[in-house]
Design goal:
The structure holds 2 protein chains of 2 kinds. By secondary structure, chain A is an alpha/beta fold. Chain A is built from 18 helices and 6 strands. In chain A, strand 4, helix 16 and strand 5 form a beta-alpha-beta unit. The termini of chain A are far apart. By secondary structure, chain B is mainly alpha-helical. Helices cover 77% and strands 0% of the residues of chain B. The chains are: A alpha/beta, B mainly alpha.
Chain lengths: 469, 111
């Protein structure tokens, strides 16, 4: 497709070599992530791959003007730098959501530029290319608005609760079918410009309506799904502009998002479709068995005393930990227990927090060695030998109704067996229900004691108290 | 590089073959991705997501061409915005991933 002289052919080959190297480095980078010890180095390899690919592209014969490129690179760096260095770890979910938006927007714009240029010059677009362009702008634009909505909900610019209206699913499915029809029409008639741009507009609307009915606790699935879409959009770009590196990188991203979505759905014992179309967080049809009894409070002094003499403590963090930004003080509490010869571990449920792995990042930030951060399967058998389990801002992931109550909306969801510990402290903001709006029998258990209030201040009072014990 | 084949095939067949070749690349890369990523421990799922996000900012490659080929003003402007967006993810994505991974420290083998 390129009119190649001997010199430019050599240059083109060099560009392709950088792309090949980048592909290999990307895969090696991800392979590094399979172990905590090799992860950092792996990602540095991936970054080198990215740099190579950019330099390789800048050498391309097609590029004749560098002024816009240079300005764009500078502006992008100026915005990207603080997004990389300044954003606190507690804000990671919204930070990732907004970056999905940027990635998808880039892919969409490249697709539109490609389509526009062909149409302007009257160059026919072949059907396979049109299919790729269609996928690119479809996935791209719905990810742009979807990610922005997710960002808005996580950043609390938009209400975090699910927004639903009557007939929502019918409308969504209708719009979806309409889009598919338009896409099909475009593949047959690539020159139908109005349809192309209208399809983008509708895809923007799909993105909004996809995330609108989704509540905070379902965010891990949605963010993973959007991650996957952004990757697929990048991959489709590769098909459209004939670039294998884009296809590979996009496929890796797509696979990653897909795997994470499945893991997250499984951890909630719900199907993909149920998360997307279920609007779970709205009002559960059945709240499950009524839990009777009363929640028993404990004073900070008594709790501190019990922790001081505990041999084994398991901390169960939830989204409340991130909200209260209590990760540092959790470590201080653990230090107090360990100072007295006790052992502290951390039990991480896959959907604790608002995105996959969020709790691990927060606790690592507080300098807790990662060996102590254990997955649900690794730690569940240890609760029975635990003196005190400290639940911080987690609710549904420790609700025993998931095991026993068939009527409960969360029945079947794998949970942390906190109720098997000898005693349980629950740090909770107030007496309200969890995200799913379900009563939690654990809180009414005889061995459970409640510590109400902001997690951070409760924890620091506990730490101070323990220092004097 | 596809010149000799082009003499034997009609343009449509060549386009189709080319698109299928890309499909092979896509499927195989997805497969590799699947095999590697299923082995990433839940511990590192957040860095994984920010890492793949940074990697998929490779669409900067397409953005650079659109912004720099000087073909028409619309392409240049759209490409320019795309370069900004992709650069945000390249720079911000790799930095924040490294920042996270730097925090994951072992206990040095002690229990």
């Amino acid at each position: 497709m390129i009119e190649a002289t001997e010199v430019s052919l050599g240059r083109e080959a060099l560009t392709l070599v950088t792309y090949l190297a980048a592909s290999v480095l990307f895969i090696l980078g991800l392979k590094g992530l399979t172990k905590a010890e090799t992860a950092r180095k792996g990602m540095q390899h991936a970054a080198i791959g990215m740099l190579l690919a950019i330099v390789g592209t800048l050498m391309k014969q097609e590029i004749i003007s560098y002024s816009w490129i240079a300005i764009g690179l500078v502006i992008g760096t100026v915005i990207g730098w603080p997004l990389g260095t300044r954003v606190p770890m507690t804000a990671m979910p919204q930070r990732i959501a907004i970056s999905h938006m940027f990635g998808a927007l880039a892919a969409t714009l490249v697709g539109v530029a490609e389509y526009y240029t062909h149409m302007r010059d009257g160059i026919e677009i072949s059907r396979p290319i049109m299919a790729a362009l269609g996928f690119e702008v479809l996935f791209g634009s719905l990810t742009v608005t979807g990610s922005f909505m997710a960002f808005g909900k996580l950043q609390e610019i938009l209400p975090g609760r699910p927004i639903t209206y009557k007939g929502q699913n019918t409308v969504n499915i209708g719009v979806f079918i309409l889009t598919l029809l338009m896409f099909g029409y475009l593949i047959v008639n690539p020159g139908a410009q109005v349809v192309f741009y209208a399809m983008i507009a509708i895809a923007f609307i799909i993105g909004v309506s996809l995330v609108l009915p989704i509540g905070g606790g379902d965010m891990p699935v949605v963010i993973s799904l959007l991650n996957s879409y952004a990757g697929l959009a990048a991959s489709a770009t590769g098909f459209a502009i004939d670039n294998s590196l884009l296809i590979i990188a996009g496929a890796l991203d797509g696979a990653s998002g897909f795997i994470l979505s499945i893991i997250m759905s499984k951890a909630m014992n719900r199907s993909f479709g149920n998360v997307i179309f279920g609007a779970f967080g709205a009002a559960p049809e059945s709240a499950g068995e009524l839990v009777t009894g009363e929640m028993k409070e404990i004073s900070v002094e008594d709790a501190a005393l019990q922790l001081a003499y505990a041999q084994k403590v398991i901390v169960v963090p939830g989204y409340g930990l991130a909200v209260a930004q209590a990760q540092q003080i959790v470590r201080e509490l653990a230090d107090q227990v360990e100072r007295r010869g006790g052992e502290v571990k951390y039990a991480i449920h896959p959907v604790a927090g608002r995105m996959p792995g969020h709790m691990n990042v927060l606790l690592a930030e507080a300098n807790i060695p990662y060996e102590k951060l254990l997955d649900m399967e690794e730690i569940n058998h240890e609760f029975s030998s635990t003196d005190v389990a400290v639940v911080i801002g987690a609710n549904d992931v420790v609700n025993p109704a998931a095991r026993s109550d068939k009527a409960s909306p969360i029945y079947g969801m794998p949970i942390l067996d906190v109720d098997k510990a000898r005693s349980v402290f629950v740090l909770k903001r107030g007496k309200g229900k969890g995200f799913a709006g379900i009563e939690n029998a654990l809180f009414f258990d005889d061995k459970t004691r409640m510590l109400y209030g902001d997690a951070k201040s409760t924890l620091s009072r506990l730490v101070n108290e323990m220092k004097t014990v | 590089m596809v010149e000799p084949v082009a003499e034997m095939l009609s343009p449509e067949r060549l386009a189709l073959a080319n698109q299928f070749l890309k499909l092979f690349v896509f499927v195989l890369a997805g497969f590799v991705g699947f095999l590697v990523i299923t082995r990433v421990p839940p511990l590192l799922h957040t860095p994984l997501m920010s890492a793949t996000n940074a990697i998929s900012a490779i669409s900067i490659v397409g953005a650079l061409v659109a912004a720099g080929r000087g073909h028409n003003p619309v392409s240049t402007i759209l490409g320019f915005i795309a370069v900004i967006c992709a650069t945000i993810n390249v720079v911000g994505g790799f930095i924040i991933t490294d920042r996270m991974l730097r925090m994951f420290k072992g206990d040095g083998g002690k229990k």
